[in-house]
Design a protein that fits this description.
This protein has about 300 residues and is an alpha+beta fold. The protein has a domain of about 90 residues: Chitinase A, domain 3. The protein is about 50% helix and about 15% strand. It has a 4-stranded antiparallel β-sheet, sandwiched between helices. The longest helix has 22 residues. The radius of gyration is 25 Å and the shape is globular.
């Protein structure tokens, strides 16, 4: 469950009995100081509430630019992209909803992503032969290395280490022990750590121990910080394989080649800069209106530096 949907009237935390309500949390988050946005070579401070508004403004400008160029995503295109993503990532919607966002939020994000892609690749065509040639001449790009499927338990005391060892020694399943005793966020998924190639495992004792472990066995306790230890279960070793040129791979290659060619042919950054500079943006919240004026001043200064003042 995500706290992003907290009721403003609800108490979300207490400190020595003193409550913090959702309304205070949201208000402080909206105007929190010490955060900002990089503008050229400088980091300009803006509150999170304004950065959120600026992101929405940017998304609207992207969609407007797509309309201006005649490449605005249709509902059919958005739904097709949504279905394709679900097929490639079956847990996509589940994970998205678990983060506190809605299906409508996801559909909107897909529309923005699709608009950006269509703007960048407007007028670009990649043939099947070009896709075939890329696959043929870049074989290493389609090799999935051997991977080690792992689960982990992380603890921060000798007492906890002993409790884990006791339960594992009594033949209790590793995922159950992880859920009960691990102090890592992965405990909610039974310590699921993922399937990693050797190169992605931290070099040193951790990698050495995992590579020396047999499938179905666990490592010894390994140092995972100043006062933390981790134990890994090697669930499986997935052999190296070459991904065949299936429809999904074809789609990925085509998109990559279209974007590469589009970056050379379509100056989206310039188009967006022109649209932003000429956009009429009215913000009713005075502090955010002032922040936007500050943002545009930094933006225009950065654009002038990039174009030599032209």
């Amino acid at each position: 469950m995500s706290i992003a949907q907290v009721d403003p009237a609800k108490v979300i935390a207490t400190i020595n009995g003193e409550p913090i309500k959702g309304s205070e949390y949201y208000h402080r988050m909206e105007f929190l100081s010490g955060v900002g946005k990089r503008m050229g070579t400088s980091l300009v401070e803006f509150p999170p509430g304004f950065l959120t508004l600026e992101q929405i403004i940017t998304e609207r400008l992207v969609l407007q630019l797509a309309k201006d160029k005649g490449v605005y995503p249709s509902d059919v295109e958005v739904q097709a992209d949504y279905a394709a993503r679900q097929k490639d990532e079956p847990k996509m919607l589940e994970d998205w909803l678990a983060s506190g966002k809605t299906t409508e939020d996801l559909i909107y994000q897909i529309k923005v992503d699709l608009a950006q892609f269509k703007i960048q690749t407007a007028g670009i065509t990649i043939t099947d032969q070009q896709v075939d040639d890329y696959y043929k001449h870049n074989p290493n790009s389609f090799v999935v290395p051997k991977r080690y499927k792992l689960r982990t338990i992380v603890v921060t005391s000798e007492t906890a280490k002993s409790a884990v060892d006791s339960q594992l020694g009594a033949a209790k399943p590793f995922p159950e022990v992880a859920k009960a005793l691990s102090e890592d966020l992965s405990k909610v998924n039974g310590g699921e750590f993922g399937a990693l190639p050797a190169a992605a495992i931290p070099e040193g004792p951790t990698r050495d121990a995992i590579l020396a472990t047999k499938i179905g066995q666990t490592t010894s306790w390994l140092q995972a910080g100043d006062k933390a230890w981790a134990k890994f279960l090697l669930e499986d070793v997935i052999p190296e394989k070459t991904t065949e040129l299936n429809p999904s791979v074809r789609k990925g290659i085509r998109r990559q080649l279209m974007l590469q060619k589009g970056r050379l042919q379509n100056n989206v950054a310039k188009d967006m800069a022109t649209l932003r500079a000429n956009a009429k943006v009215d913000i009713s919240q005075k502090s955010f209106a002032d922040a936007y004026a500050k943002f545009m001043e930094a933006f225009l200064k950065d654009q002038a530096a990039k174009t030599g003042g032209k």
